[in-house]
Specification:
The chain is α+β, with helices and mostly antiparallel strands. It is about 20% helix and about 35% strand. It is built from three helices and ten strands; from the N terminus they run αββββαββββββα. The chain has helices at about 15-25, 75-85, 180-190, and strands spanning about 35-45, 50-55, 65, 65-70, 95-105, 120-130, 145-150, 155-160, 160-165, 170. The strands form two sheets. Strands 1, 2, 3, 4, 5, 6, 7 and 8 form an eight-stranded mixed beta sheet that branches.
């Protein structure tokens, strides 16, 4: 899917070729990237995904995969496992079928501490046989929980993000601009051969 991007003071490119020409003709230079892991853990039948409620960055108050900043000398997969262990009580030997789902570099930073770098998101997926093994780690600041996944008649994947808390019905917004839903779908196809 191709999205047109309009910036203040310039006309949006009309095709992929014009985007290429726009990038070459602009005075913009590529910034360094800051890597982040986003881990989507599924229960054993793929009907639920583990998400955490972000408490910082532009995504504060939204649901996202478990993970976070990958350290400078760290391999993305090791950063993903470290993020899982720091944010939950889950150990890596309790995750089956761990797989890289894809990488996405965004044109805008959501973390003010790294505003001068493009965010490079490394998406991973895995299967947790026992949902009860997963809890928020003692030192973690962000809540984690299992969310049911539903598919519309057209096969569109959506985590059920309406739930009851303290007697109130709440709706949680997902982080990103559809990217998280896309990678939840990719994870289900790769790990469970499901749509």
């Amino acid at each position: 899917m191709h999205r047109e991007v309009a910036r203040e003071g310039c006309e949006a490119p009309k095709s992929q070729m014009s985007i290429f020409k726009y990038i070459l003709s602009s005075k913009r230079t590529m910034k360094e990237t800051q890597k982040y892991s986003v881990v989507l853990l599924f229960n054993k039948d793929g009907s639920k995904v583990l998400l955490q409620t972000k408490d910082r960055t532009a995504f504060a108050g939204m649901l996202n995969g478990v993970g976070g900043k990958i350290e400078k000398e760290e391999q993305p997969v090791m950063g993903a496992f470290r993020g899982i262990e720091e944010e939950t009580t889950l150990k890596r030997n309790k995750i089956a079928h761990f797989a890289w789902l894809g990488t996405l570099t965004l044109p805008e930073q959501c973390d003010t501490a790294n505003a001068n770098k493009y965010p490079e998101l490394w998406f991973f997926g895995g299967v947790v046989e026992d949902e009860d093994l997963v809890q928020k780690a003692e030192d973690a600041t962000e809540e984690v929980g299992w969310y049911n996944i539903t598919a519309d008649g057209d096969g569109t994947i959506r985590p059920v993000t309406v739930f009851e808390r303290d007697g109130k019905i709440e709706h949680m917004e997902l982080a990103g601009d559809g990217d998280l839903l896309y990678f939840i779908g990719v994870g289900r196809r790769i790990l469970f051969n499901k749509r």
